[in-house]
């Protein structure tokens, strides 16, 4: 499957338009589901702002957006000397890396472009610029393929008629393909397994309510929206046979950072003897970290909680704590679904073994 014939029913969350002097088009996810609007990024500041404000969000998607952001940043001044070009590349990567701290895909994509430039020091600026665009496109294409494989690996874990719970949005909007957790559901449905998805609304920014339900309904997958606090009760009612979520960064031992609330869902699943799976591409692993305690957790503005979507719901001046992610320890994760296969049990050894499986 290539980017040109991406499924019509899929959402093209990001799209590069034109050649090296082109621009990045993306769906403004902050407006969904009430309004479908695409925005154009013609400068690196607009890309940075889009990542920071979650117009583009989800670990793989922000990595791809950042890669194209570098290409945009280098559109001016390609006539200067190569060291100047490299210097501007470093500045653009450093700037984009400051947009959000938790999803490792962002840093992984930026490192990939910088390493490529470092390996080709004799190319002219124009040639190097073209190679960087090719690399950004390759990152996008690879992500599409990884999503597809994750769907195939994960669908094996579901049975006909299963109720499955997910948290946040790990769908097509968050990747260049069909998503990670949602790719598993799409593939299971395609195989006729007749699953029913329960989507946590995912406070405070409601990615589950706004985005996951939107994607599933577009694909005609049965979905029921619940508030985050209902997850335990629907498990108790035996409506859930498996939980599948995405991840933003996975440490070498399998500890996984994902949207705030994921840890609570994993604990609830464990107490109810329900398998809890993470679905993520290899680009979401950070093997430089031995455990999840080293993962930086983004803290966002108090207004996301006190004035959600513009409506004040708490007293002015109240003290607020707003971590955007939490870390689920590996011991609560039944398996990690990757494009290279299923990591099970989730141990340092098994993470290393599965990730080293050659894909070619
Ligand atoms: O703050 P967000 O909306 O970027 O958080 C996204 C998530 O937590 C997703 O579950 C994760 O990035 C995986 S997306 C395939």
Per CATH, the superfamily of the largest domain is Translation initiation factor eif-2b, domain 2
CATH architecture of the largest domain: 3-Layer(aba) Sandwich
> Which shape, going by the Cα principal axes?
globular
Give the N-terminus to C-terminus distance in angstroms.
16 Å
**Number of strand segments:** 14
Structural class call reads alpha/beta
- Give helix and strand order, one letter per element, not per position: EEEHHHHHEHEHEHEEEHEEHEEEH
The unique ligands bound to this protein are: 5-S-methyl-1-O-phosphono-5-thio-D-ribulose
Q: What is the gyration radius calculated from CA atoms?
A: 20 Å
Mean of all residue-level pLDDT scores: 95
Report the top-level CATH class of the largest domain: Alpha Beta
Number of domains: 2
InterPro entries: IF-2B-related (IPR000649), IF-M1Pi (IPR005251), IF_2B-like_C (IPR042529), Initiation_fac_2B_a/b/d (IPR011559), M1Pi_N (IPR027363), NagB/RpiA_transferase-like (IPR037171)
Organism: Gimesia algae
Protein name: Methylthioribose-1-phosphate isomerase
Pathway: Amino-acid biosynthesis; L-methionine biosynthesis via salvage pathway; L-methionine from S-methyl-5-thio-alpha-D-ribose 1-phosphate: step 1/6
């Amino acid at each position: 499957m290539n980017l040109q014939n991406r499924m019509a029913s899929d959402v093209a969350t990001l799209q590069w338009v034109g050649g090296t002097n082109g621009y990045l088009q993306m769906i403004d996810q902050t407006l969904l589901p009430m309004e479908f609007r695409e925005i154009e990024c013609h400068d690196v500041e607009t890309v940075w702002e889009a990542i920071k404000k979650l117009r583009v969000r989800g670990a793989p998607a922000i990595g791809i957006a950042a890669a194209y952001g570098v290409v945009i940043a280098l559109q001016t001044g390609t006539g200067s000397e190569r060291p100047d070009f490299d210097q501007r590349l470093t500045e653009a990567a450093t700037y984009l890396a400051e947009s959000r701290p938790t999803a490792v895909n962002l840093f992984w994509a930026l490192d990939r472009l910088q390493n490529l430039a470092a390996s080709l020091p004799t190319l002219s600026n124009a040639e190097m610029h073209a190679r960087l665009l090719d690399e950004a496109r390759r990152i996008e294409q690879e992500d599409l393929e990884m999503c597809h494989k994750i769907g195939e690996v994960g669908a094996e874990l579901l049975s006909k008629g299963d109720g499955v719970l997910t948290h946040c949005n790990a769908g097509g909007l968050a990747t260049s393909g069909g998503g990670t957790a949602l790719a598993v559901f799409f593939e299971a449905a395609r195989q006729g397994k007749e699953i029913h998805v329960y989507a946590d609304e995912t406070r405070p920014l409601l990615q589950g309510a706004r985005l996951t339900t939107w994607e599933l309904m577009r694909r005609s997958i049965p979905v029921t929206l619940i508030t985050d606090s209902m997850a335990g009760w629907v498990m108790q009612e035996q409506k859930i046979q498996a939980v599948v979520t995405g991840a933003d960064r996975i440490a070498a031992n399998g500890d996984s950072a994902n949207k705030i609330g994921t840890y609570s869902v994993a604990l609830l699943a464990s107490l109810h003897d329900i398998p809890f799976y993470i679905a993520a591409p290899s680009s979401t692993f950070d093997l430089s970290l031995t455990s999840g305690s080293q993962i930086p957790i983004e803290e966002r503005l108090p207004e996301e909680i006190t004035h959600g979507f513009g409506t004040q719901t708490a007293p002015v001046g109240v003290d607020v704590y707003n971590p955007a992610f939490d870390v689920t320890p590996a011991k609560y994760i039944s398996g990690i679904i990757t494009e290279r296969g299923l990591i099970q049990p989730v141990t340092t050894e098994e993470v290393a073994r599965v990730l080293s499986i050659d894909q070619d």
